[in-house]
Amino acid sequence: MTRFFVTPEEMTGDTILLTGENAAHAKVLRLKEGEQVLVCDGQGCECLCAVTEAGAKETVVEILERRTSETEAAVRVSVYLAFPKADKLEHVIQKATELGAAEIIAFPSARCVSRPDEKSLKKKLERWQKIASSAAEQSGRGVIPQVRVLGSLAEALKQGREGDLALMFYENEQATTLRMALSARKYRTVSLLTGPEGGLEEKEVAHAMDAGWQVCTLGKRILRCETAPLCALSAVMYDAGEF
Fold it and tell me: 151 pLDDT band (50/70/90 cuts)?
């Protein structure tokens, strides 16, 4: 079923007005009166609606039923990754959204080649959030993950540690596997942190351990910086019973 995202304020009445990109999308789909669609607030609430007016510039739908989205994961996963080069972050945002991540947070680390300046960051954030929104719509999500940027690894370590599990992945770790870390305790919230193309420095890993993070390995093979967070996220979702 076709899904549209609007603001929570736009879902307060008995009808919802689809405008802008939503109206353009409805026009492309050639929605007709009586057809049913889903309208979501991006925060977990969705409405089953019927089209009552299908115009060229706006579409009006009537709310038939309000309900909580059933497509969201039972576990809340925050993906922290050091800035990668080129458009790799866009790839991670899209796929992490499809896999069920609650938020994607980028930050600079010692070996990051890409370091967006403040001027370009605003436009990049707008684009990244749009990618998350589009991926959420395509994959049937009820929540649009928030894409955020932090100023340092230290900030990421502090914020990510607030979850039930805080897991950092490091290619030189050999003792603790992801399976071991996930089976050590029950969890409802998980933070996953991965490094850039050159990996994390030893002192950064030591800093993470001092901050209470569990350092893990993702296996014997070295994964690319855009592969590692998606691999870890998939494993957590599997362990949580989402697959």
Answer: very high
pLDDT of residue 115: 82
Instruction: Give me the CATH number covering residue 26.
Output: 2.40.240.20
* CATH value at residue 134: 3.40.1280.10
Looking at the fold, whether 163 and 46 belong to one and the same domain comes out as: no
Distance CA 69, CA 140 (A): 9
Question: What is the per-residue pLDDT across 164-187, written as a single tens digit (0 to 9) for each?
Answer: 999 999 999 989 999 999 998 899
For residue 156, count CB atoms less than 10 angstroms from its CB and return exposed for 0-12, middle for 13-18, buried for 19 or more. Answer: buried
Domain extent, residue 8, equals 3-68
Q: Using one digit for the tens of pLDDT, what is the confidence trace for 16-73?
A: 999 998 999 899 999 999 999 999 998 999 999 999 998 888 999 999 999 999 899 9
* Alpha carbon separation from 194 to 99, 104, 145 (Å, rounded): 17, 12, 18
Q: How far is the first Cα of the chain from the last one, in angstroms, to the nearest whole number?
A: 21
